[in-house]
Amino acid sequence: MKQGHSSGSVTDSGNDKGKDKININISPLSMETLSKIKKHIYRRRFRPTGRYFMHDNTSPGYGWLLPGWLAEERHMEYGRVYRYYYDPSGRLYKTRREVLIAWKQSGVIVMDN
């Protein structure tokens, strides 16, 4: 695994066919969250190979996330996309709805456009 310089990007450098590819381009605050959840990401691998992406509030389509929160996308070869969300402490949420409920319970006011 290589860590990028100022952009906060990380990619898996595996050259073997069939190896999982991980692409990450996130802010430094989100890199801190990533370091907390790293062991969970690699432990919970799916059997089919695929591509994995980490997004934060600076990524297109994920501007709704609060700073420090991460969204993990797993694109399987057969077309299925799995999404998981992580808070700054590393807790896993399986849906966007769960994230919004957690924010509401912690007193965050969410306003839709």
Automatic annotation (TrEMBL):
<dbReference type="GO" id="GO:0005634">
    <property type="term" value="C:nucleus"/>
</dbReference>
<feature type="region of interest" description="Disordered">
    <location>
        <begin position="1"/>
        <end position="23"/>
    </location>
</feature>
<dbReference type="GO" id="GO:0003677">
    <property type="term" value="F:DNA binding"/>
</dbReference>
<feature type="domain" description="MBD">
    <location>
        <begin position="55"/>
        <end position="113"/>
    </location>
</feature>
<keyword id="KW-0805">Transcription regulation</keyword>
<keyword id="KW-0238">DNA-binding</keyword>
<feature type="compositionally biased region" description="Polar residues">
    <location>
        <begin position="1"/>
        <end position="13"/>
    </location>
</feature>
<protein>
    <recommendedName>
        <fullName>MBD domain-containing protein</fullName>
    </recommendedName>
</protein>
<keyword id="KW-0804">Transcription</keyword>
<dbReference type="InterPro" id="IPR016177">
    <property type="entry name" value="DNA-bd_dom_sf"/>
</dbReference>
<keyword id="KW-0539">Nucleus</keyword>
<dbReference type="InterPro" id="IPR001739">
    <property type="entry name" value="Methyl_CpG_DNA-bd"/>
</dbReference>
